[in-house]
Amino acid sequence: MFCIGDKIIYGNSGVCEVQDITTLDLNNAHAGELYYVLKPLYQTCTVYTPVDNDKVLMRPVISKREAEKLITKIPKMRVDAYSCESLNELSGHYQSVINTLDGEELIRLTMSIYTKNQLRTEQKLKPGAIDQKYMKQAEDLLFGEFAVALGIQKEEVADYIAGKV
What we know:
By secondary structure, the protein is an alpha+beta fold. It has helices spanning 64-73, 87-100, 103-122, 129-150, 157-164, and strands spanning 7-10, 14-23, 34-40, 47-50, 58-60. The protein is globular.
């Protein structure tokens, strides 16, 4: 169980701070159940989720050491551009990677999409809208977590990574 003040990753909301652990005044079967009150750091909303939620992945933010270790792996990672015929299959693949909330897999996804975009640019084609959507989503999740772990602003993460690789 997380504590008030903990920074966690909560599904596609990214980094959230646990602001409270409380019961909600509900008139249904969930009355009396404990809920986290989460404040996403990079969104303007509040999230209420059951403490024992098994539908949305929740985990602690990685440590500074873990973030730096992941960043040092980047130059050694080799990925191919993922492509397929069906846009639904492409979206499904990207979403399945994002749903893991695994930093290394998110890095691989962004590198794969970047490689694909480079190939399209060489062919004088625009990057695909689905590729751009999931690239942004993966980068938002990664950069948000790295920012918290490294104690820097989210906008500084790309330059920080570039300086390390």
